[in-house]
Amino acid sequence: MCKHFNDNGSLNIKEIPRDLPTNVKPFEYHLSFNVNETDFTFKGETVVEFDVLEPFTKELNYLELNTSELYDVSAKLLFPVEEEATSIEEFAKFQKTRFTFSEKTLLSLKKGDTIKLAIKYGGYLNDKMCGFYRSKYEDANGDIKYQFVTQFEATDARKAFPCYDHPSIKSDFTIKMESIKDFVHISNMAADKETIIGDRKITIFNTLPKHSSYLVAFCVGDFVPVKSNYNYRVPVTTWTVKGSEKRSQYSADFTSKCLEFYENLFDIPFQFNKVDSILCKEFSAGAMENTGMITYREGALLLDPEQYTIAELQRVSEVIAHEVAHQWFGNLVTMSDWTDLWLNESGATFWSWFCCNNFYPEWNVWESFITDSLANAFALDSLRSSHAIQNDSCEPDEINQIFDAISYAKGGSLLRMIKTWLGEKDFVAGVSSYLKEFAWQNATTADLWTHLEKISGKPVKESMSIWTKNVGHPIVTVEEIETTETEITLKLTQHRFLKTADVKPEEDEIVYPIVLFYKTEANTAEGTFDTSFTFNTRETSLTLPVSSSKNFYKLNGNESGFFVTKYPESRYEILAKQSSLMTDDDKAGLIGEMNSLCAAGAIKTSTFLNLIINWKSESSPAIWNQMLVALGSIKRAWFFEGEAVMNKLKTISADLAANKLDELDWEIKESDSFNLKELKVSLFSSAVNNGNAKYTKKSLDLFHKYLEDETVINPLYRDTMFTAVALNGDGKDYDAVFKIYRKNDSRKIIALKTFTRFEDKQFVDKTFELITEKIILPQDIYIALSMIGSTPEGTNTLWNWLKTNWDQVVKDFPPSLNMLSYIVRICTSGFTQFPQYDAVKAFFAEKECNGFDMALAQSLDAITTKAKWVQRDGADLAEYLG
Ligand SMILES: [Zn+2]
């Protein structure tokens, strides 16, 4: 960013670059805020000090700062001379304000001088969940209350204070907060001084050193502290609301443990004087890693110690581990530009799994990684509308769109690939070396590669930049060209993989350096594989030691690489029977790849279904999840092909799950291993979701008992019981669930998922009413919409709702928030047919699509994929289903 502004003096708004002048650089901010909690405004003062890096010129004779939605702005130079600004011009479209002084003032400054500027202004405590905003909630007595909190990433610090709002500009921040005396004040650093004057409280916080603006944070409100019971060097507290203290203990304790884990792992102590985790009742993202003041939505922070489900425990732990990892990976060392956002997000994603693996080895975290992060990454990256990990986005509307599966999950998957390639020891040492060199500074992707290369001696930079700078990933096609008693020779070719199976030559110019990670029968005992062979040409041949008796080999051992393998059709039949020679990671990976391959027409859907049926006696939850998800994706593609085919597909899933559950005994016992519990939960859920009569009845009976006595069920089965109610319940059940929703306890989200899934028109209409009345919180709208879209009719209803209410939706969810992308995706991506594709395309052809154009393109690609799949394999599947 930050090119010199160079015009001829006459202002033409179209020519003004968004960037700010680079001849000065801020190094220190003193920020003051005075909160008016009744009219939802604040008065602000920003005193900012700049270094002069280059002299001013006649053309560039002003200061500029990013601003957005600030009002009554006045400014005064404090140093080197005291002088009121002669003009203050806001360029709202470019989100900046220009401050001009008398002609000679800035011109007289030399390189090395400093400038001190004071700006007074007013701001809004908005209800849009960005900037300095108001977060509304009902307290335990049902009274409406507000918390006032900040969410600045990516470019909303400018809504709270004028600044150089870019990650590459790191400055010191000293914050002063004033409000009514009853409110608690929290910021990144601990309070230095707190005074009460009359009915006002004034807090001055310790200086936050060298930080990017998007990581600055503060909040005021009725927060209640829950201190960590785990003894860590600095105080760790979760700030919650009254009545939720018990549910807040886990987060305080686990945050402390994660801090200790990462500082030992990276060999760099946590650098700040406390960590607070803040429960934000209204929050657009899951959580935000602000240094020392991490903010969370409720579902990502609170855990009922007596009532949690496996999914809740894993989600809360994973999010906390992610945000704490950011304290090093993102906050201490920050990406130089949004282009390298993946460094922050993939890093935190990868380390959160790594950290959970340490605390919960029984989770088999890396197996879940395959069915979760890796699967999400493949799903998005196999669409034409995917993007490269290192993205050139710089406009605020575009930055928000790249907080997606590519920046989080594909990057995380590549880090896992590098870890396998280099070995864990070198990988961790390389990362630690990178963090040490760039602490308190900014870094680029290349900087990380340099350190990994230095430690490992492997050509990381050259290899990895191909993976991160290009969009997509390869498919490796295997031909078996010669077989002897002891060997097999393979011919391998690589091309770009697209699920729409229509790669154009110009999209297929990249040859990836693919570490093949191949396994042969020599490896099977310990689950090891070769990490030395890199396939970096379009075509190659490879001879492997494979005996004619065992006849086993597999590429991509433990699904470590980011590529899809296409074997000859006959090899899948062999692999289907070689379950015992593969690890659970291999099998989960193979199912995921085959699912993509049949969507792309590279193998027949029936081949894939045969393999799944062959593996019905598996006992790993990851394998089962992957199988059930794959069956779900077939159902999603055949969604609009009529009830008969849907029912047959449902029966396959329901029977598979129910039979296995019968075999295991469905009741969860205390003595069951974590894996077994997890498996039972998945099977029970799938059986009920797909209409198995026996388990549906059990669930409904349980629910009706549960309404009288909440202890009758094992909490691990709670969510499935609610699902059964959503699919089969009556009006009375609806009312019961809605009552639970209004209680605002730990069941709020599952209750929301339940009553919004009722299919009858009257209930769907009620959901839209609740959205309009904001009884369903705007932050949760995506949950309600997803549930409505669970059926073909619901998918049509959603689309009609979006079309009718488009103007209001854009008003409520401005394009700079990524919520709009979610809404567009949810309301369009359920379609599966070409005429539906045309309708979506035609509607948006007339609209301004800034801020969600990527989500829309991805939705359209997803529809195309499904439409082509059905067209291609309709007959094959019909024959299979009989
Ligand atoms: Zn993150």
Short description, anyone?
The chain is of the alpha+beta class and 882 residues long. The model is unreliable at 1-16 (pLDDT under 50).
Task: Describe the model.
The longest helix is centred in the C-terminal third of the chain and has 29 residues, at 853-881. Among the domains are: 1-221, Immunoglobulin-like (Sandwich), CATH 2.60.40; 223-328, Neutral Protease, domain 2 (Orthogonal Bundle); 329-472, Neutral Protease Domain 2 (Neutral Protease, domain 2, Orthogonal Bundle). It is α+β, with helices and mostly antiparallel strands and 882 residues long. Helices cover 41% and strands 20% of the residues. The chain is globular. Strand 17 (224-227) and strand 18 form a beta hairpin. Residues 1-16 have low confidence and may be disordered. Helix 2 (249-266) crosses helix 3 and helix 22 (781-788) runs parallel beside helix 25. Strands 1, 2, 4, 5, 8, 11, 13, 14 and 15 form a 9-stranded mixed β-sheet that branches. The chain has a 5-stranded mixed β-sheet with strand order 17-18-19-21-20, covered by helices on one side. Strands 9-10-16-12 form a 4-stranded antiparallel β-sheet, with no helix packed on it. Zinc ion is lined by residues 289, 322, 326, 345, 348. Residues 26-215 form the Aminopeptidase N-like N-terminal domain. Its EC number is 3.4.11.-. It is an enzyme of class 3 (hydrolase).
